[in-house]
Amino acid sequence: MKTNDLILQTVTKIVLFVVILFSIHLFFAGHYYPGGGFVGGLMTSGAIVLLLLAFDLKTVQNILPIDYKYLIGIGLLFAVGTGTGALFFDAPFLTHAFDYVYFPFLGKTALHTAVLFDTGVFLVVVGVTMTIIQTIGEDE
Amino acid sequence: LILSLLHIAIISPFLLSIFIPILYKFIRKIHTGWFVLPLPILLFSFFLTFISRTKHNERIVNSFEWIPSLNIDFTVKVDSLGLLFALLITGIGSLVVFYSIYYLSSDKEKLNTFYVYLLLFMGAMLGVVLSENLIVLYMFWEFTSFSSFLLIGFWYTREKSRYGAQKSMLITVLGGLSLLGGIILLYIMTGTFNISEIAQQTSNIYHDPLFIPALVLVLLGAFTKSAQFPFHIWLPDAMEAPTPVSAYLHSATMVKAGIYLVARMSPIFAESALWLWLVGGIGLITLFWGSFSAVKQTDLKAILAFSTVSQLGLIMSLLGIGSAALHFDSIGDGVFTVATAAAIFHLINHATFKGSLFMVVGIIDHETGTRDIRRLGGLMNIMPITFTLAIIGAFSMAGLPPFNGFLSKEMFFTGMVQIVDFKLFHLNTWGILFPIIAWVASVFTFIYSMIIVFKTFTGKFQPEKLKKKPHEAPFGMLVPPIILVSLVVIFGIFPNILSHSIIEPTMASIFPSLIKEKEYFAVHITFWHGPTIELFMTIGVVVFGIILFKTLPRWKKLYHLLPDKLTLNKLYDSLLERSEKGALRITKGYMNGFIRTYLLYIFFFFIFILGFTLYKKEAFKMETSNVAPIGIYELILALIIVIGSVTILFAKSRLTSIILLGAVGYTVALLFVVFRAPDLALTQLVIETVSVALFLLCFYHLPKLKRNEEHVGFKAANLLISLGVGVTVTLIALSSHSNKLFPSIAQYYIENTYKKAGGENMVNVILVDFRGFDTMFEICVLAIAALGIFSMIKLRLTRRKEG
Hints:
Distance between the termini of chain B: 56 Å
Structural class of chain B: mainly alpha
Helix content of chain B: over 70%
Radius of gyration of chain A: 18 Å
Oligomer: heterodimer
Low-confidence stretches of chain A: none
């Protein structure tokens, strides 16, 4: 099923970055506005799926040589690690902490450990969707 | 930190096991065992320092709240009983690790997995003997079964290893589950998992109807673990494990966990007659059957396995009989307590002589390539050091002076003879069986001990039957058994170095109710008691033993009297085979391979259980007073959803179905927008996109859609079920809106989202913070699903190639 869909490919090349940037925005906005690790992760996978639709599997693998199975593991480590980190401060598992810090240029910024946890969610979601799609897609 | 040094001691083997694969991968030049060895030595010296405190019946307790809402605390208690086992685990552990460095070659064996399993076991076993909380104890208990399974199956390419591993797993896990049942019954009666707190309530629970079931269940756990008759059948098959493992797990430590449990639970159960008869009786039967079966074996390790079974029975029976002491108010002149003292003393002795014998057999196997006594013989001149070690170990096992086995066997006889004088529980009539069986079993013990030494080391040397040219073992393999054998001699000549430091305080932890403040048990072990009945029993054992050993070929036919079909092993095999076949038949009955059938089951059950609950609880209610007005947008969207769903039913191709399904999904997302739930809408939109792509991918692989092959009855059933699901969900939705049984928790989140979590998007804060645990497990489930799909598709391909 080799097609040469010029319009889709050209549009994809531009839209891809918009989608990914938007997904990153969604991810960071999560704590205050609609968004978060789950949606962000799904959006990123959506972008990669778009890439898959426009080009074929091999090309995408050349562009993004990532083993998504490892991404799942890293994500889980992030999530569990953030939870375990609380134990070192004598707090129950998965207790989050946050503080407000003043950065030059950025001004008052909130820093959350929840973001680390959400990073885990993000990575797992991307890893899981892409692992599933890739394995089924590769299957002859 | 919150954890005490004792907690760290228990956890340290687990921690080290994480690093073993890394060390193995990067430092191949050094045998991985050298990295493991320091830990048990360190732990052994650490636990040694506690002797000076436990000697005075002191208890060191360190608690760490683990799951306080369920009364589960990780409490570590060091008393003399626990300490004795901890010393055995770490002491024998050090020797076994040292031995294994020479036994397992670093270029042929998978050392990384071996030492990981061994360390898992060591940590788990320490956890069992030092935990005060029964649930924690149970957790570690199962961990020992699990690591034993892995170690027996270490050479997993061998059929017999897998068989032995499975057998031990099935039997010990059966016991583990019944132990859990017993623990729960104890909790129901007393409201605590804490062993000493339960023991304080013994007099209250003694007449509880649950007391006897709890006792039986706990004993079932102990008997399966300690290979007591009729559950002993797993231990001989466990000998497929590498010999260091057999020496460590299946002789010195893990199989003694059952004995530990019986000793530990004695303060709770031991006053009941059933306890005395069950523990004493089963122990005695095991003692006899084990020693009787050991004589007919031809494999050295099989002899040792049955001998371990029999010795475990001996210790068990002593513990059972020792409970008779509880029926007296004071320890007075020490009547009946001698049995318990003998149990503890023999436990230590058994670890020393059996450990050394296993190592000796390992050396023979390693140097000659066989363990079959029909091929061995005349090794005395070739392996003089090994021969000396074997003689001391086996003579101690046979109960000959001046070794430690002689002393504990004398005490064992004393206990067995004394029990006849006990006036309760019909022991003065039936009790006479105890010394008789004990004596007969000792004769057989004597015979197989002689077989081990003389069939291997004397007689004709047959080099043509051996795979290798035998020579003396390397020095490193000899050091651990030499240390153990020296202990056999030292404990034999100076038994009282143990009696004050370990045996007396351990008796105090088994029978805390017998001693008052500042009172101690007094144990003094001596060689010469004068011409007592025990002495004549020992002389009888030696005389009859020698006669029977010399005439062995003549009466060996006796063993063929029991037909093969009636053995316990055959029973186990046929049970396993039948349950496998039965399970397969049942599964095939309802798993026909069609997803639609499974959906039918699921939905039928769904309607049944929810509809029934709704009806039974009279929960259906429709309230229209508090309903928001229906806007035009909602109406349109709902209409689209209905039209979309109905159209799917009539779609001719899969592609149309998928697109229609996607349309329904997007419309639902729009509905969320209307209801001002941007997070949900966003997620729904993206999920819809990704899942449509996924469906397209999957459907590409499926064959063309075929229709109209189902008959009318099947369609009617489908119609009924789908209608039922729709009606049930609608009814529940209406009722849940109308029944406001408790105030919504939304207010809590509205108030606390900013205050406690510093966020403004409530949905996201709930996901990552308030209910972070849920999210964590959800992503775990996602990960499992992805890896499952990956392995199913990838593994299927490789398997097809093989077939």
